[in-house]
Amino acid sequence: MSVFVVFETFGETLKERLDIDALEKYVSKIDGVYDTFQTPLLNQKTMLDKINEVKQNGGKDVNSVVAVTGSRVRLEKPLQRAMEGAGLDPNQLVITNVREQCALVHEKAEATEKAKGLVRVAIEKARLSTPLERRIVQRFNEVLVIGGGVSGIQASLDLAKLGVMVHLVEREPTIGGMMPLLGKTFPEDSCAICIGGPRMMDVGNEQSIELLDNSEVEVVIKMPVGYRVHVKRKPRYVDAEKCVACGQCTERCPVSVSDLSNGGISTRKAVYLPNPNAIPRKHIIDPEACLYLTKGSCRLCERVCPNQAINFKDEEKFKDLYVGSIIVATGVDNWDARKHPKYGVQYKNVIDQFQLARYLDGEGPTAGILTKPSDGQKPKKIVMIQCVGSRDPEINPWCSRYCCMAAMKHAEEIKLHQGADIDISILFKDIRAGGKYYEEFYNRVKTNSINFIHGNLDVVKEAEDGGLTVEYIDGKGQRASTPSDLVILSTGMVPSRGTLDLAEKLGIELG
Ligand code: SF4
Ligand code: SF4
Questions:
Q1: pLDDT confidence bin for 434, thresholds 50/70/90
Q2: ipTM of the modeled complex
Q3: Which end of the chain has fewer CB atoms at under 10 Å, N or C?
Q4: How far apart are CA 239 and CA 307, in angstroms?
Q5: Is ligand 2 within 6 A of the CB of residue 153?
Q6: Nearest ligand, CA of residue 270?
């Protein structure tokens, strides 16, 4: 097999800096070179015509092309297309740049000698490479989406609409994630569940989406045509085929535990519906709270269930999926403010913005009424503290870019729906309202009798009577403080638990 070498002279300009004729003469004597050719401008058509001409004139064993030119960026794709058009393997194209780091930076004689070396190497490379065999390999055409929050839901629905079979794996017993629990969205003040709820239902009704709730990805094995994914489905102890979510089991269950899906501001039973909008709308038993599963006696739920849906023999199930692509949409958790004592999470009347959202949600556990956790009374003076766990080199350096807006949204909601007489202050480092209509939202909230205090939190303290004091360094560097009977921490976002482990399984590098 032999090589065809083409020289691009860039009009005649390259010839002023490089002795192309001498170079061509040198190249034509190299073993394996079938023919050479000079052209003022190289493009797809010139190349295609020339290869066809070479082949018609006896060059049938030519299988490689060396293009002696400038930067490969401009020519690689067009020349490869030309080679394909002429029936050659496009991978047999070798481009050597004799312009930028050769002709343009050396004297002509020196550049010509250097170019000889560069072109000889390119010819050897072309001669020694073997054309690749083209094979059509059918990849697995199903997709795995990990995470059933709003991003994973939307990705699944979009793929299903395109006719792709989707396996949606969600760790929790319901899809939806955090977004539908936030009450309202900013800056439009839209109802969060009105946005998330219909999409959640669409997932439940979509034939092309297999919902694997209460499940986790255990092992991912990369294959030439996609991935084999081993998924574990945790036991529900309630037969989802039989459960009609009548709630009789929940009513009868004697165990109450903190409901973390509401930020711990309410309780739930050991057998429960994850939330009123859960998809799938099926009950589940918490094995760590259930008396029968922990202590071996009770089974009251089993007695009252009209459909014999309780199944204490339920166990882990495993499933292998074969997918062509994986979408990771594992979402976020709130930074855990218990990690630093200055935030005062140990005090009853210190909560975070997620908990506040659950208080303010009309569909939430308090039906939208905000009270102090300590005594159930309406708060009189609220202080919101920004950048909790964010923009702090000792904790997390990043800005979560939503906490400023969340605080302002909640401050306005409190003024509108809980009482204009409630005094609200927002202690901020900077207000970051970087989004469409965010600045307008900020300007609107500022006119709503909400105090913006520029400063850095020092510590939250509780007095013996339960009153709180927020101590801070103000914008002028002076120590200052303000009393409060309810402190709201605007905690930043961190990757959801398990993200590091999952990234390792998937071989994803983290920034
Ligand atoms: S009583 Fe049975 S059918 Fe009703 S919610 Fe409980 S498990 Fe489901
Ligand atoms: S067996 Fe468990 S889930 Fe059922 S009622 Fe008793 S404690 Fe509740």
A1: confident
A2: 0.94
A3: C
A4: 9
A5: no
A6: 2
Ligand nearest to the CA of 312: 2
Which spans in 29-165 are helix H? Answer: 44-56, 72-85, 108-128, 150-161
- Ligand 1 centre to CA of 282 (Å) is 8
Look at ligand 1, atom 5, and give the residue with the nearest C-alpha.
Answer: 245
At 58, is the pLDDT very low, low, confident or very high (cuts 50, 70, 90)?
confident
As assigned by CATH, the class of the 2-128 domain is: alpha beta
Q: Residue 244: CB within 6 Å of ligand 1?
A: yes
Does the pLDDT at position 306 exceed 90? yes
* Ligand minimally distant from the alpha carbon of residue 253: 2
| Residue nearest ligand 2's atom 5 by CA | 253
**How many angstroms separate the alpha carbon of residue 290 from the centre of ligand 2?**
5
The stretch 96-121 carries a mean pLDDT of 96
- 305 CB within 6 A, ligand 1: yes
Q: Is the pLDDT of residue 481 over 90?
A: yes
Q: What is the pLDDT of residue 223?
A: 93
CA of 132 to the centre of ligand 2 (A): 64
Q: Work out the average pLDDT over 483-487.
A: 97
Peptide bond connecting 187 to the previous residue in cis, omega within 30 degrees of 0: yes
- Which tokens is 504 given? 């390792």
State the pLDDT at residue 12: 87
Say if residues 94 and 100 touch (Cβ distance below 8 Å).
no
* CATH match for 334-493 among 3.30.420.40, 3.40.50.2300, 3.50.50.60, 1.10.443.10: 3.50.50.60
Which pLDDT score, from 0 to 100, does residue 256 have?
A: 98
Domain ranges (residues) in the chain: 2-128, 143-234+316-331+499-506, 248-304, 334-493
Q: Are 115 and 26 in contact (CB under 8 A)?
A: no
To test ligand 2's pocket by mutation, which of 237, 250, 253, 313 has the most ligand atoms within 8 angstroms of CB? 253
366: left (phi over 0), alpha (psi -120 to 50) or beta: alpha
In this structure, the residue with its CA closest to atom 3 of ligand 1 is 243
Q: Which ligand is located closest to the Cα atom of residue 300?
A: 2
Q: What's the CATH class of domain 143-234+316-331+499-506?
A: alpha beta
**2-128 and 143-234+316-331+499-506 in the same fold:** no
Whether 511 has a pLDDT exceeding 80, the answer reads: no
- 509 confidence band (pLDDT: 50, 70, 90): confident
Q: How far is the CA of 283 from the centre of ligand 2 (A)?
A: 12
Whether the CB-CB separation of 433 and 444 falls below 8 Å is answered with no
pLDDT digits (tens, 9 = 90+) for 192-230: 999 999 999 999 999 999 999 999 999 999 998 999 999
Q: In what order do the strands lie in the sheet with 209-212?
A: 209-212, 166-169, 143-146, 325-328
Distance in Å, CA 351 to ligand 2 centroid: 30
164 Cβ closer than 6 Å to some ligand 2 atom: no
Q: How far is the CA of 309 from the centre of ligand 1 (A)?
A: 6
> What per-residue confidence (pLDDT) applies to 1?
82
